[in-house]
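Quick one:
INPUT:
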């Protein structure tokens, strides 16, 4: 077993023990009085927090810029982008 699996198993055991020890009924007000187990309120709150955190921390979409090249000017662009070198025309044809 690798390190991450062991850590995950330890966390699952700790969380399970925590929820099993917090089963006492508590009165909870959410648009009326309701009686829930304390562990269910904690679990629901944790789940809502994970969802909100995931929404707020998700990576933003990056805008990409598309540049269109006119085919008539493409050969000029390719020639200007190649630096002057000591290559022969035969070598340049081989590389490209």
């Amino acid at each position: 077993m690798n390190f991450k699996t062991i850590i995950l198993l330890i966390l699952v055991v700790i969380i399970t023990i925590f929820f099993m020890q917090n089963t006492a009924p508590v009165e909870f007000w959410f648009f009326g009085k309701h009686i829930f187990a304390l562990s269910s309120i904690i679990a629901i709150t944790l789940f809502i927090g994970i969802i909100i955190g995931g929404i707020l921390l998700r990576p933003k979409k990056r805008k990409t810029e598309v540049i269109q090249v006119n085919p008539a000017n493409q050969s000029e662009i390719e020639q200007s982008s190649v630096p002057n070198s000591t290559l022969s025309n035969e070598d340049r044809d081989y590389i490209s």
